[in-house]
Design goal:
This protein has 89 residues and is α+β, with helices and mostly antiparallel strands. Helix content is 46%, strand content 18%. It starts with 6 loop residues before the first strand and ends in a 5-residue tail after the last helix.
């Protein structure tokens, strides 16, 4: 999967948010607030282009002190939220 074009991570008043830009995100109409780890995962997914839950979980384990099982569960949860709001394809 990959992040949909037209969605970017921005710092707004000290908060990390995903917002839509351009025509592709015209009907999005909201900001998604992310915690530090979710924002890091968004940036990593953006760097990867095509990504999987497993690849993001591995990257999370390399960056943070987290077990592989916990990383995979957390990444799967975050990616499921992104799918629910339609910012990944």
């Amino acid at each position: 999967m990959k992040l949909k074009s037209g969605f970017v991570l921005r710092d707004v008043c000290g908060e990390k948010v995903i917002m839509g830009e351009g025509i592709g995100a015209l009907d999005f109409g909201r900001l998604l607030c992310l915690n530090e780890t979710a924002a890091w995962l968004w940036s990593k997914a953006s760097e990867m282009g095509d990504f999987t839950v497993d690849a993001l979980a591995l990257a999370l384990c390399e960056e943070y002190d987290v077990t592989p099982d916990r990383a995979k569960a957390d990444v799967a949860s975050i990616v499921a939220e992104w799918q629910k709001v339609n910012v990944v394809e």
